[in-house]
Amino acid sequence: MPRKAFSTTMDPDTLKALKLVAVKRDRSLNAVLQEAVERYLAEEAVKDPDAQVFLRRAKEPLEDCMAAIERRIARIKRQRAYCAVRKIGDRSSGTAQSGGESEEGRRPAPLGRARGEG
User: Fold this and answer.
1) Is there a contact between 10 and 16 (Cβ–Cβ < 8 Å)?
2) Which one in 1, 16, 53, 73 has a CA-CA gap of 20 to 30 Å to 96?
3) pTM score, two decimals?
């Protein structure tokens, strides 16, 4: 598979240590970084089901992977929104307010401003 160039920054001491490892092993810095990242991803795959999916999909065309990532992010956002609504519902008396209105029938003030200001 052809390589893809990218740019990043790193702590100088860490970079120096990586270069020393590369010299000691008579390998290129790129080869050492590639091995380190592959090990890291393998460790993450054990802990995180999403990492397993990303590793499997890494060999697929980028467009397919991006679509899968976007679907996963959308699902996570829906789950978080559902949980937030449930938490709000748990705090209320059990009756839902319609239209985002407060108990007095008024809409809540925008963030950063108190009622009566603005």
Assistant:
1) no
2) 73
3) 0.45
Of 18, 56, 54, 17, residue with least CA distance to 34 = 18
Q: Which amino acid is at 41?
A: L
8 vs 101: which has the higher pLDDT: 8
The answer to whether residues 25 and 32 touch, using CB atoms and an 8 Å cutoff, is yes
98 CB neighbour count, 10 Å cutoff: 6
pLDDT for res 101: 44
